[in-house]
Amino acid sequence: MTKVLYTEHIKNRLRLRKIEYDLPKKILDQSKERYFDKETGHSIAIMKTVFCGKIKEIMVAYIVEEDCAKLLTIHPLKDGQKENRIKTGRWRKI
After folding, report:
1. In the chain, domain spans
2. Helix 23-30 vs helix 8-17: angle between axes, to the nearest 10 degrees?
3. What tens digit of pLDDT does each residue of 23-33 get?
4. Which of 31, 42, 57, 58 could form a disulfide with 77 if both were Cys (CB 3.0 to 4.6 A apart)?
């Protein structure tokens, strides 16, 4: 991917959650854990990072259109949230 676009929604989430602006792109570029969300049709990248003084798994939802990755939303995963979505089949490993 050559271009990354931040949607207004993810920009708002970054401000609201006080997340560093470059973190979504870093997660997209460096994540080794990726899923397809069959409920939304979005791709999911997950990476552990420091958030509010603790190591947390942070997810970024995105879509790829031609040569552009459009970053949609970001949030820390709650305990068991990832495992539950995998177990129910909502998230499929890619």
Report:
1. 3-93
2. 110
3. 999 999 999 99
4. 57
